[in-house]
Design brief:
337 residues, alpha/beta, 434 Repressor (Amino-terminal Domain), Rossmann fold, 6-stranded parallel β-sheet, 14 helices, elongated
Length: 337
């Protein structure tokens, strides 16, 4: 293992100079810094994490809270987590992944122990019980998600309210008047999860403004649950010709059931989804969709958190504008008899 002393000899400087370059505690000339950094790269030197933490009172670790729930689409959550981890490494930070359902207890453990220098929280609820703890600590944090009250917080998210409105507008322009929303599992709404609630609010508000009838039904996903939900939709609204799906697990069962009922997509029924592009393009009918920009959300969250750690960030809400991609699953509403 390469030592700090070996780096110093290779660079032709003192060990303390190498230490100052690593810690940034003293101003070092550009030429000397570059020589030390080049020696570090050539020798493959990696500072001892424990020693660095003791010397600087920093852990160089970011805690990422990502509760892995069975009612959430895990691939999107993991795509965000991977983007966070990759972004953190470019700034010299490692990730401490918290996957338990501890809620406030996990926040207390991290902020009170020095385990991490900062936190990123996912799966944000409108009245998230973790937020008072974040507001009560000096430790920097960023939310990937949007609570009801964003005062004193930095949040990065897709503009889900605008996403819902965009889906309704697309179907309205095609002449659809009766729209059904196949939503997330009921538990997601019971927790008042921000992204689901905001999408639904955008859908309902824009449908009301455009004079459309909108029916929302949560669905656990999977074929059996989707069969029950679809039967209920057509029983309650037989004239439904447009579907908005915000539930990746329900996409393929919905398309299969519509085929079995002799309803062609998009000639008889149009389907618009809020989902990753991979889900939309690999479905049995290529789906018109609004993509969830998981990588961009993760990258932006890290950038804002690092800015806070470096003393140049401020609290703000960053909402990414939705983009709807038209594919094969949406078309003009069928003529009414």
């Amino acid at each position: 293992m390469v030592t700090l002393a070996e780096v110093a000899r290779h660079a032709g400087v003192s060990a303390s100079t190498v230490s100052y370059v690593l810690s940034g505690k003293r101003s070092i000339s550009t030429t000397t810094r570059q020589r030390v950094e080049e020696s570090i790269r050539k020798l493959g030197y990696h500072p001892n994490a424990g020693a660095r933490a003791l010397a600087s009172s920093k852990s160089n670790i970011i805690a990422l809270m990502i509760p892995l729930r069975t009612d959430m689409y895990v691939p999107v959550m993991m795509e965000i987590a991977i983007a966070v981890a990759a972004g953190a490494r470019t700034h010299g930070y490692d990730i401490l992944l918290l996957t338990g359902e501890e809620g406030p207890d996990a926040v207390r453990r991290v902020t009170g122990s020095g385990l991490a220098d900062a936190m990123i929280l996912m799966d944000v609820e409108l009245d998230d019980e973790r937020l008072p703890l974040l507001r009560g600590t000096d430790q920097p944090s960023v939310l990937i998600g949007l609570p009801a009250d964003t005062e004193g917080l930095t949040c990065v998210d897709l503009d889900f309210r605008a996403t819902g409105a965009l889906c309704v507008e697309h179907l309205a322009e095609l002449g659809h008047r009766d729209i059904a929303v196949i939503g997330e599992a009921a538990a997601v709404y019971e927790r008042h999860t921000g992204f689901a609630e905001r999408t639904l609010d955008g859908l309902r508000t824009r449908a009301r403004e455009l004079g459309l009838r909108l029916l929302h039904r949560p669905c656990d996903g999977g074929y059996d649950a989707m069969a029950v939900t679809l039967a209920r939709v057509f029983d309650e609204r037989p004239g439904t010709t447009g579907f908005v799906v915000q539930n990746e697990a329900a996409v393929e069962p919905l398309l299969a059931l519509l085929r079995q009922q002799g309803r062609a997509v998009p000639e008889d029924v149009s389907v618009v989804a809020v989902c990753p592009d991979q889900v939309a393009t690999q479905a049995s009918v290529r789906l018109t969709s609004v993509a969830v920009p998981a990588q961009e959300m993760g990258r932006r969250a890290v950038e804002h958190l690092v800015a806070k750690l470096e003393g140049r960030g401020s609290d703000e809400v960053v909402l990414l504008a939705p983009e709807l991609t038209v594919r094969a699953s949406s078309g003009p509403a069928p003529a009414r008899p």
